[in-house]
Specification:
elongated; 2 strands
Amino acid sequence: MLNIRKLLAVTLIAAVASAAQAADKIAVVDVQRAIFGSDLAQQRAQAAESGADFVALKAKYESAVADLQAMAKEAEANRMTWSQEQVASYQKKAEYTKADADLAMRKLQAETQQLQQSIFEELRPKASQALEEIVQEEGITLLLKAESVMVASPEHNITAKVAERLNKITQ
């Protein structure tokens, strides 16, 4: 009789713990993806990428890459007939053109990184507000960063909801 009571007590405690645990709502969010998925972030990125400085840098990079490709074709076709001086001249010109392309690429990357940082800094407070509102509305008791979760079902991911709410806040 005592064993049955213990067994019932343990079962009851386990059932109550399961019910309490089921009441917890767990969600996963990628704040960075929500910010950069918002309409305002997309507009800022498009505006920056169509700006004169960015377009000029991109054109310079693409031009240097095209020059390198043309030089490679020329070298492939004529290298056997070149003198040592012509080979040396080609190599020097190719190195300069590659350096130009690399520099343009680094500048593009720096501009892009700076743009992303400014967009993130501008929208972070509003994204936090959107996230807090969704957490309260949906009764989320445990919120995890997407980077720290190995597997989560789509219904637990609130990133898209945060992006939508951020769109409403920033309009």
